[in-house]
Write a structure and sequence with these properties.
Distance between the termini: 12 Å
Shape: globular
Radius of gyration: 17 Å
Region (Disordered): 122-144
Low-confidence stretches: none
Largest sheet: 5 strands, mixed
Helix content: 10-25%
Mean pLDDT: 77
Strand content: 25-35%
Number of strands: 5
Strand order of the largest sheet: 1-4-3-2-5
Length: 144
């Protein structure tokens, strides 16, 4: 029996926010930055992985009216049998609440259903039952 595979991570630096947070930036420049992030995600074939919602200062619950932003992560995992490694490519950024709808439309994902919620008190993630299509597992090749 072979050992468990190792992992390598590659993080794509694409900026902290979905758009441009600079007050001097034009709407066109911000739209271009948003489109570029979505294009990168689609070209690389990444899938939604994790979301962590940010709440107002001092709030312990995760009610919709208290959420101020969401930190989202997209990943792509590829198994390399020659090296017995899983290569993980990741891109992550913050989406302010006022841009949730625009982000979901552009990316074709749902923040509540397609990502695993990393909020510490959350118990709503139900695994594969919530996903529209199952994620391919790089480990299937090891057990076949």
């Amino acid at each position: 029996m072979s050992e468990n595979p190792g992992r390598t991570f590659t993080r794509i630096m694409a900026g902290d926010y979905f758009g441009l947070r600079n007050e001097d930036a034009s709407k066109e420049a911000s739209q271009k930055a948003k489109a570029e992030k979505i294009k990168q995600i689609k070209v690389l074939g990444m899938t939604p992985k994790f979301v962590r919602f940010r709440c107002k200062e001092g709030k312990e619950t995760q009610q919709d009216d208290e959420i101020t932003a969401a930190h989202v992560t997209f990943q792509k995992e590829e198994y390399d049998p020659k090296l017995n490694k899983v290569h993980v490519t990741e891109i992550s950024f913050i989406v302010p609440k006022e841009e949730f709808e625009e982000f979901e439309t552009m990316a074709g994902v749902s923040l509540k259903e397609d990502f695993k919620n990393l909020y510490e008190n959350d118990s709503t993630y139900n695994g594969k039952e919530r996903r529209k299509t199952p994620r391919p597992s790089p480990f299937k090749k090891l057990w076949v």
